[in-house]
Design a protein that fits this description.
The protein contains 19 helices and five strands. With 390 residues, the protein is mainly alpha-helical. It has a three-stranded antiparallel beta sheet with strand order 2-3-5. A hairpin with a 2-residue loop joins strand 2 and strand 3.
Length: 390
């Protein structure tokens, strides 16, 4: 049974990482009305930024004439080799010689983030800003850190300050647009993404964000056009194909949707949304069930604490006729937050088919208690009445 479309938007945690000396952000959970209500969209897109100080901060220059490496160079070398303890020690010694070395301060901040030492990370970022208060890349890094901590007012102020210093930075506008999306301020988000595109017509994340705003407003053809432009600009960015697949679904074009999802996992075999959605369609259509099982298992492995992945995996088992496995998988999903009425509804169906009518009735009742208006409520009520009249 085809599932209804989500009606809310959620911009999830931003994970800040260091990529080739640049700070980048990975949006790990972006949902909007673009997929069945068990379909996932934990985005894995990477928005690259220019190096903070106009140079590649992860590289160290080779010593000339057998010169000894500086402490800073020792630190970055250790960092590249994964020896964070040695890197931290070298960087801290380096700061004693040069306390205003922003490059080193930001490296320490990055390591603190990796170790989930958030207060220390914030201190390093603020220290960098004290030294270079108008550096747009540092402001952007700090804004993204604040976003990851859900300190959105501070993040907006930080991004706006950075934009004032450089209104021609497309990534800053896109970051601001994402916060407006999180707040469901679609108009403001659209303005920010349009400004991003106006600044740089080759910046794919601007088109992605703009497509999101169109999709939320129900302008699916405009959303499709925006997403296709993003795929043209960044043909190797898997999330663009996930979004394209979702908007094809909204236009009832399953064939195009599945083609887009397949392209997404071709580019990124760990693209959870595409894996999950392909598995769901295969289960619904009762075809390609061996691949469906592989897709669904992988999605559940990659996102083991999300009930939606177990919903899909359980539904695949059901389509394969493996009702005991379907029951166990769906029951596991019901133990994970948040409560999911469709998952309980699916459990009720599987329990009924497996001959456990009393537990099936309980599952249908649970689904209706959680949300009497969920999309499959009429069918759940009908199935429950049938069980009670037996």
């Amino acid at each position: 049974m085809h599932k209804s479309w989500l009606s809310s938007i959620f911009i999830g945690v931003f994970v800040i990482m260091w990529i080739s000396g640049a700070w980048a952000t990975s949006q790990q959970s972006l949902e909007f009305p673009m997929g069945p209500d068990n379909m996932l969209d934990p985005n894995q897109e990477i928005l690259g930024l220019p190096p903070l100080l106009g140079e590649d901060t992860t590289k160290t220059s080779a010593p000339k004439n057998n010169q000894k490496l500086t402490l800073e160079e020792v630190g970055f070398s250790a960092m590249q080799q994964g020896d964070l303890l040695a890197a931290e020690q070298a960087f801290k010694q380096s700061l004693k010689e040069r306390p205003d070395n922003v490059r080193v301060i930001l490296a320490l901040g990055q390591m603190a983030l990796q170790n989930q030492q958030l207060p220390q990370a914030e201190q390093y970022l603020q220290r960098a800003l004290e030294i270079k208060p108008h550096n747009e890349a540092i402001l952007q890094t700090f804004g993204r850190f604040l976003t990851s901590q859900n300190r959105l007012d501070e993040a907006v102020s930080t991004f706006e300050k950075a934009i004032r210093h450089n209104p021609l930075n497309a990534a800053l506008q896109a970051d601001l647009g994402q916060i407006h999306l999180h707040r469901k301020q679609v108009g403001k988000a659209q303005q920010a993404f349009e400004a991003s595109i106006k600044t740089d017509q080759t910046f794919a994340p601007g088109f992605l964000g703009l497509g999101d705003t169109f999709a939320l407003e129900g302008h699916y053809k405009k959303a499709t056009k925006a997403y296709k432009q993003a795929t043209t600009l960044s043909p190797k960015l898997a999330i663009t194909y996930v979004k394209l697949g979702q908007v094809h679904e909204l236009q009832h074009d399953r064939k195009q949707a599945q083609q887009a999802y397949r392209k997404a996992i071709e580019l990124d075999p760990n693209q959870i949304s595409a894996l999950n959605n392909l598995a769901w369609f295969a289960a619904e259509e009762k075809r390609n069930l061996d691949n469906a099982l592989l897709w669904a298992k992988k999605a559940a492995m990659l996102l083991p604490k999300d009930p939606h992945s177990y919903d899909t995996l359980g539904w695949v088992y059901r389509s394969r006729g493996e009702l005991d496995k379907a029951t166990a998988t769906l029951q596991k999903g019901t133990t994970l937050p948040p409560d999911n009425p469709p998952l309980w509804y699916h459990l009720g169906i599987v329990l009924t088919e497996n001959g456990n009518q009393p537990e099936a009735a309980k599952a249908f009742k649970k689904a209706l208690t959680l949300n009497p208006q969920f999309p499959h409520a009429p069918d759940a009520i009908a199935r429950l009445r049938l069980l009670e009249n037996q």
